[in-house]
Amino acid sequence: MHSLRVLLSALILSLLTPHGRAQQPVFDSRSIPIEVQGWWSTEFGHIHCTTRMPVGQEVAGNLVLPIRGVLHNNPSNAYTFRVDAANIGTISKQAINFQGAYDGANESNQSFAFNHTVPTTKMPNGWQTLRLRLTVRTPDRQVFTTSSEIPVYVNNPNRGGRSDLATREVLQTINAGSISFIGKGWYTGFDYSNVQLDGVPIKPVKGLHTFRARVVEGGDRRLAVSLDKTHAIPAASPWPAVPAAVGQVLLDSFAANSSWKVIRVDTTKLTNGWHHIAAQVESGTGGFSQCSFCTRANELGGVAKVWFYVQN
Fold first, then answer.
1. In which domain, by residue range, is 207 found?
2. What is the pLDDT of residues 224-270, one digit of tens each?
3. What is the count of structural domains for the chain?
């Protein structure tokens, strides 16, 4: 019977579409799709780092993350992936070698996939936030990466005591009874561009659901929130291909974005199944990169994106 349950669980996970709705009406609270993106626009496009994990829930032992990376209009080399924990440091790291291709004119979407194991025993018990860092080298040898603050509650047996080392911003929402996470983009010389998305559901939602979004490091940056919006993404086994979707812009704000912006989603207007919401911040600061087609200043951006399951 146990083997049958394991087989059925694997089958269910294989049916999940990483963008948009699932191909079957299934939900697993331990496998919530979540994504962070780094943007270096307009010349370079961006990086996706997508996984499925027990966001805001208890973890122990080895946490195996299925990772899908995407390079969109990005002629860079993805060379490493690592997971850091806030206030602790690097927990796990692995080398990768994926070369992006982009000529500055023709649309390029490339994806790749791998599994990564995070040994949670390297963190103390308590609330921790994980930083998923998919890192590339740009044509002029600069570092461009995603990062994040994704909460998990570490609870390894026989590890006495508790030490909540998660970032202050995420702990504040947890203590208030809500789950949030932060998505980041980072580029050499430009520091981070951080956006926080609150109201992450870890069970199916119905009726009216409230999300909140804000810029973490200042209110003078553009904040946008969209629903079910994506460009096309090719398949990277076991992740299926994703068709382009126009989606819907829920917020596009240029003022006071360090304060929470409330976004209410009426799920009765959505089909049952998986949907996704994304919050994006643009830094407002520009800089040049050296490549054959780079002629304009770029802006750094960060994206926090999560899927939620509608069940009306």
1. 2-310
2. 999 999 999 999 999 999 999 999 999 999 888 999 999 999 999 99
3. 1
61: left (phi over 0), alpha (psi -120 to 50) or beta: left
List all residues 6 or more positions away from 297 whose beta carbon is below 8 Å from its beta carbon: 286, 287, 288
CA of residue 310 relative to chain centroid, distance = 20
Task: Please state whether the predicted TM-score (pTM) of the whole model is above 0.85.
Answer: yes
Closest CA to 227 of 303, 312, 148, 305: 305
Query: Cα-Cα-Cα-Cα dihedral of 146, 72, 290, 304, to 10°?
Result: -30
pLDDT tens-digit series, residues 125-165: 999 999 999 999 998 888 999 999 999 999 999 888 899 99
- The SS3 assignment for 246 reads coil
Alpha carbon 171 to its chain's center: 18
Classify the C-alpha dihedral 38-282-182-34 as positive or negative: negative
Pair of tokens at residue 280:
């994006």
